[in-house]
Amino acid sequence: MTILITGGTGFVGAHLARRLVNEGERVILFDASPNPKRIQDVQSKLKIIRGDLTVLSEVLDAVRSNGVEGIFHFGATISAAADARPVASFQVNYAGTLNVLEAARLFDVKKVVYSSSMAIYKPSSGKVNEDYEKWPWSSYGVSKVFSELWGQFCNKKYGIDFRAIRFPTVIGPGREWSTFAFASFIVQKAALGESFDVPVREDFRTPITYIKDAIGAAIALYKAEVVKQRAYNLASMAPGAKEIVSEVRKHIPDAPLRFVLNEELARAAEERNPPQLDGTRMESDLGYKPQYSLERVVPDFIQEIRNNKAMYA
Predict the structure, then answer these.
(1) What is the pLDDT of residue 179?
(2) Which of 5, 33, 296, 300 is the most buried (most CB within 10 A)?
(3) Same-domain check for residues 165 and 128
(4) pLDDT at residue 85 greater than cutoff 90
(5) What is the pLDDT of residue 260?
(6) Same structural domain for residues 114 and 57?
(7) For 139-194, what is each residue's pLDDT tens digit?
(8) Are the beta carbons of 51 and 64 closer than 8 angstroms?
(9) DSSP 8-class letter at 45
(10) 36, 140: one domain
(11) Chain Cα centroid distance, residue 296
């Protein structure tokens, strides 16, 4: 089967590509600014297309000329960048979704899995399921709500098998910086022997999941014969920042980590911190439940970095 991944050399896209290649799929990566370093270990086994999601003809050509049967639409301007330049990000995060779904409609793509986010939800102090109020505080979250709704519309009107997965903050090797990415940097910097100033309060918690669980869930959603709903939460954990540092020091006792509060970032994180996601429906409908607790994440993450320094240093 030929599968196209938009944002294919981005953080999640690259890890997904590696997993699909190792499972024997033919993989096409579509990216405006390809970063081959992230997929150097499997680059010879896949195809990279430099393309712009905002240009319909480029999306159509990538799907048509490669006989694409399935799409993972993971390309987007991420949260902090989207909020910094909301008008500029509109074309990628809104028009990009329209273009991907138009290509799916015209060329009879079997399934489209969309990377949505916890950012769609109104902040809450408890766990929320898929029915919780959608009232995002960021332009990024608004774009995710729109894309989910447009995908559902295309399912109803054109029969496109659109499916969305709502991720918490995903951590793992190669993560880009964003407001809630400090958890990933705590582990990665320590594994590389680099110092890191944790910019939030020690007791600050935000929903996270490990990249291997994110990829496993996305593939489970794609492979499901049928789905009972068009969008699913991926269950999240929410350890405190100090807990993550303590877990890292179990494996790297001299890790050069310290807490240095960045008042602006910490305030923004606290004001916009999304709720923890309840993944009950994904588990009951799709049979997928996250496999990695914090105690499993940290040593695996460290080992991945040490085994692949050329990709992540």
Answers:
(1) 84
(2) 5
(3) yes
(4) no
(5) 98
(6) yes
(7) 999 999 999 999 999 999 999 999 999 999 999 999 988 888 999 999 999 999 99
(8) no
(9) G
(10) yes
(11) 20
Give the whole-angstrom CA distance, residue 231 versus residue 150: 12
Say if pTM beats, i.e. exceeds, 0.90.
yes
User: What is the spatial distance between Cα 13 and Cα 251, in angstroms, rounded to a whole number?
Assistant: 28
The more confident residue out of 98 and 83 is 98
Residue whose pair of structure tokens reads 């659109």 in the numeric block: 162
Total structural domains within the chain:
2
Write out the two tokens for 285: 């409908």
Query: What six digits make up the tokens of 216?
Result: 């496993």
Q: How far apart are CA 139 and CA 136, in angstroms?
A: 8
Q: Which domain holds residue 27?
A: 2-169+210-233
Q: What contacts 21, CB < 8 A, 6 or more positions away? A: 27, 42, 45, 46
User: To the nearest 10°, the Cα dihedral for 176, 277, 263, 254?
Assistant: -60
Per-residue b/e over 265-301, b at no fewer than 16 CB within 10 Å?
ebebbeebbbbbbbbebbeebbebbbebebeebbebb
CATH (domain of 104): 3.40.50.720
CA-to-CA distance for 232 and 1, rounded, in angstroms?
Answer: 24
Distance of alpha carbon 220 from alpha carbon 167, whole angstroms:
14
- Name the DSSP class of 193: T
- Whether residues 123 and 177 fall in one domain: no
